[in-house]
Amino acid sequence: MTLRSARMSDLGVVSEKFAEHGVSLSEGDEGRDTLKVSTGKARKAVHICTMPHPGFPTDVQAQWMSLMAVTKGTSVITETIWENRFMHISELERMGADIRVQGNSAVVSGVSRLSGAPVMASDLRASAALLLAGLAARGETQVSRIYHLDRGYERLEKKLEALGAKIRRVPE
């Protein structure tokens, strides 16, 4: 997959964590403003700790948790920036994720597959995390309160459809 208007230099530690996970990010053939994403290696669980820039961004923590929820092994996700940034955990658990909260850390034991379920987004990052988890799940997932998603992502369902996702927006 190639992303346009994306730069490696903007990703910092996120690109390092993806490399640890087994996903390669590199500048695309089209130049500095494209990013090529490729897999091939076995993916493994990776610990993260949110930190101010240039550390791992808290804004990516929920989406990373969805990824770790379906990655073999155990990862620890520590949130040091915002209290209550784990509100998405109960919704991921409804889908079959195995997550235990210990203070400001979440211990995520990857499962082989999530199951579709009705879930509710509590904020922008949670809505993106639940959408990604739903795409990885077996069966149908309905994410309600997607107005959170619309605040931060423009036409996301169209972009995901272009990548092969089976996704549709339905009125509540």
Give me some keywords for this one.
three-stranded antiparallel β-sheet, globular, 172 residues, 9 strands, four-stranded mixed β-sheet
Tell me the strand order in the biggest sheet. 4-5-7-6
Q: Uncertain segments of ≥5 residues (pLDDT<50)?
A: none
Return the string of H and E elements.
EHEEEHEHEEEHEHH
Tell me the total number of β-strands.
9
Largest sheet: 4 strands, mixed
List the helices and strands and how they pair.
Elements: E1 2-4, H1 13-21, E2 24-27, E3 34-38, E4 48-49, H2 61-69, E5 74-78, H3 89-94, E6 98-102, E7 105-109, E8 118-120, H4 124-136, E9 142-144, H5 147-152, H6 156-162
Helix pairs in contact: 2-4
Protein architecture, described:
The protein is of the alpha/beta class and 172 residues long. Helix content is 29%, strand content 20%. It has 6 helices and 9 strands; from the N terminus they run E-H-E-E-E-H-E-H-E-E-E-H-E-H-H. The strands form 3 sheets. It has a 4-stranded mixed beta sheet with strand order 4-5-7-6. A 3-stranded antiparallel beta sheet has the order 1-3-2, covered by helices on one side. The protein has a two-stranded parallel ribbon with strand order 8-9. Helix 2 packs parallel to helix 4. The longest helix is centred in the C-terminal third of the chain and has 13 residues. The radius of gyration is 16 Å and the shape is globular. The model has no long low-confidence stretch (mean pLDDT 92).
Give me a quick take on this structure.
The chain is an alpha/beta fold. It is built from six helices and nine strands.
